[in-house]
């Protein structure tokens, strides 16, 4: 259980004058579920986007399965200096707004990347897509277009789409925030199942119940740094830091 | 008043010259058809180059933007004169290219094809750009996060969605292009305006010019109605909303 899957060291990210991440260190073990909490603007989504290099960090190092994904000393010079292909084919991401491809059917959404990126045959991809979609409970929606699906169903397709690339790590960026309340559970259940199968996951979320129940580690971020981290019970029930207490107070009050 | 009608709407003149003017108009249509195919491709290529990522390609993007801006800012007539009045005299170019007679069409035809394609490629690149920029950034991010390259994301995700958003403005460009094929008369292509102008010069009667105009109307008016219909249909889609139905 002590095999490192993902290691972040001294991650800095700026957007112009604004420094969004001010030195973040984080270790994620294989099979671990890390829930990232924090107020909006704390940098938690940016941190996820740094991990799969949608926003390459200016400073710091990222190790994926022990592999330094910064190609050399030229860190911070933009996309060219990062091992983009290595990362994107090993790290799956699910977004708040689903971002399904609206011009493609559910089946095509799931098979597009494996076919184009991994060059797998259509038959092989469709067979696997079918299995994945059945797993997320959408085996009967293969030929539907996304607009015909509910938000919860769309998000489950998005999870299946990411899994089709057989990622080692899955990133979830507030994936239930855009959903109607009654649709949240089906998505969380899918994620719970994935965690129980041993997937390594980083989950940015406001779902305290999920963090408490499924998280192996909870990270509280504020102002671009990790303020507090530890076991869910410790961070959520007995926070040491004033900022954590204030945030949890506001969230749990609702 | 009858003098007015005789000058502009002399049906005898129209009847006598109908087949000549129609033959010229066929030239307009042929020129239009060739340029549409070329300019749609050239414009897409320009729009895609403009979207290329990375700092290294900045000079290429800059050149493309400069090309698009300059060609949209110069009168097409000047472009056509520069081509037809210059290329034939550049002796370092082989004669078959310098003075092209391909597929049985005379060199003015091909000079017009080149000039109109260069200009309309720039116009159409702007239409494509509007379509591409209307696609939410999340689509590209989803594609990239799945390991697709920039060009795979463009080809499979962005462009197929972008082209469904632009039929109306693209059709407007095509209407303009059809009308602008008459500019080929200045490089001595025997299209409808050149022919009807010769008839005007011989007979001092404008009816043949009116006839040419009517031929354009017969195509451009229905096309303009089609543009309107496409815009309305598109608005309908938006007001009906793309809200998610609970299946």
Give a structural overview.
The complex is a heterodimer of chains A (254) and B (247). Chain A has 254 residues and is of the alpha/beta class. Chain A contains 9 helices and 10 strands. In chain A, the strands form 2 sheets. A 6-stranded mixed β-sheet of chain A has the order 6-7-8-3-9-10, sandwiched between helices. In chain A, a hairpin with a 2-residue loop joins β1 and β2 (18-29). In chain A, α5 (151-163) packs parallel to α6 (181-196). Residues 75-80 of chain A have low confidence and may be disordered. At the A-B interface, β6, α3 and α5 of A face α7 and α8 of B.
Secondary structure layout:
The complex is a heterodimer of chains A (254) and B (247).
Chain A: E1 4-15, E2 18-29, E3 33-37, H1 44-51, E4 59-64, E5 67-68, H2 84-88, E6 91-94, H3 106-117, H4 122-135, H5 151-163, E7 169-173, H6 181-196, E8 200-204, H7 208-214, E9 217-222, E10 225-230, H8 232-237, H9 242-253
Helix pairs in contact in A: 3-4, 3-5, 4-5, 5-6
Chain B: H1 2-8, H2 11-50, H3 58-73, H4 76-84, H5 95-98, H6 107-133, H7 137-145, H8 150-162, H9 167-180, H10 192-203, H11 207-240
Helix pairs in contact in B: 2-3, 2-6, 2-10, 2-11, 3-6, 4-6, 6-8, 6-9, 7-8, 9-11, 10-11
Mean pLDDT of chain A: 90
Q: What assembly state would you assign to the polypeptide chains in this entry?
A: heterodimer
**Could you say which overall geometry of chain B the principal axes of the C-alpha atoms support?**
flat
Rounded to the nearest angstrom, the distance between the terminal CA atoms of chain A is: 36 Å
Helix content of chain B: over 70%
- Secondary-structure element pattern of chain A, one letter each: EEEHEEHEHHHEHEHEEHH
Radius of gyration of chain A, Cα only, in angstroms?
18 Å
Low-confidence runs of chain A (pLDDT<50, min 5 residues)? 75-80
Instruction: Please give the count of helices of chain A.
Output: 9
Extended strand count of chain B? 0
How is the biggest beta sheet of chain B arranged? none
Are there runs of chain B of 5+ residues with pLDDT below 50, and where?
A: 239-247
Mean pLDDT reading of chain B: 90
């Amino acid at each position: 259980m002590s095999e490192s899957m993902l290691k972040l060291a001294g991650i800095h990210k700026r957007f112009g004058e604004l420094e969004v991440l001010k030195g973040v260190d984080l270790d994620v073990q294989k099979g671990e579920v890390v829930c990232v909490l924090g107020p909006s603007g704390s940098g938690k989504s940016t941190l996820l986007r740094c991990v799969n290099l949608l926003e390459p960090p200016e400073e710091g190092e990222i190790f994926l399965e022990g592999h330094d994904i910064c190609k050399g000393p030229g860190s911070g010079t933009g996309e060219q200096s990062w091992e983009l292909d290595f990362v994107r084919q090993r790290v799956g991401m699910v977004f708040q707004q689903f971002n399904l491809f609206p011009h493609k059917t559910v089946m095509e959404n799931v098979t597009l990347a494996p076919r184009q990126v991994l060059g797998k045959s259509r038959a092989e991809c469709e067979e696997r897509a079918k299995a994945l979609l059945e797993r997320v409970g959408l085996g009967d929606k293969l030929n539907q277009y996304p607009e015909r699906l509910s938000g919860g169903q769309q998000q489950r397709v998005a999870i299946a789409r990411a899994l089709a690339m057989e990622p080692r790590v899955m990133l979830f960026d507030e994936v239930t925030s855009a959903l109607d309340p009654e649709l949240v559970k089906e998505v969380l259940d899918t994620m719970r199942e994935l965690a129980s199968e041993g997937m390594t996951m980083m989950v940015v979320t406001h779902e305290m119940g999920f963090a408490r129940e499924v998280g192996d580690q909870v990270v509280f971020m504020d102002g671009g740094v990790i303020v507090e981290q530890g076991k869910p019970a410790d961070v959520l029930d007995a926070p040491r830091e004033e900022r954590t207490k204030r945030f949890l107070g506001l969230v749990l009050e609702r | 008043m009858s003098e007015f009608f005789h000058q502009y709407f002399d049906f005898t003149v129209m009847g006598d010259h109908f087949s000549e003017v129609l033959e010229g108009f066929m030239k307009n249509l042929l020129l239009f058809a060739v340029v549409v195919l070329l300019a749609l491709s050239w414009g897409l290529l320009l729009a895609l180059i403009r979207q290329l990522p990375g700092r290294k390609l900045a000079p290429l993007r800059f050149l493309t933007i400069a090309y698009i801006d300059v060609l949209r800012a110069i009168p097409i007539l000047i472009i056509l004169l520069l081509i037809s009045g210059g290329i034939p005299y550049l002796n370092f170019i082989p004669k078959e290219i310098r003075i092209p007679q391909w597929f049985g069409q005379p060199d003015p035809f091909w000079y017009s094809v080149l000039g109109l394609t260069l200009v309309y490629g720039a116009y159409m690149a702007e239409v494509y750009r509007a379509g591409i920029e209307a696609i939410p950034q999340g689509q590209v991010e989803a594609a990239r996060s799945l390991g697709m390259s920039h060009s795979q994301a463009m080809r499979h995700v962005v462009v197929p969605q972008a082209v469904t958003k632009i039929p109306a403005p693209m059709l407007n460009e095509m209407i303009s292009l059809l009308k602008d094929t008459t500019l080929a008369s200045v490089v001595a292509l025997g299209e409808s305006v050149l022919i009807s102008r010769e008839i005007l010069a011989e007979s001092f009667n404008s009816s043949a010019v009116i006839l040419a105009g009517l031929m354009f109307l017969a195509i451009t008016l229905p096309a303009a109605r089609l543009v309107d219909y496409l815009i309305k249909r598109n608005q309908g889609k938006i007001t009906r909303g793309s809200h998610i139905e609970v299946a």
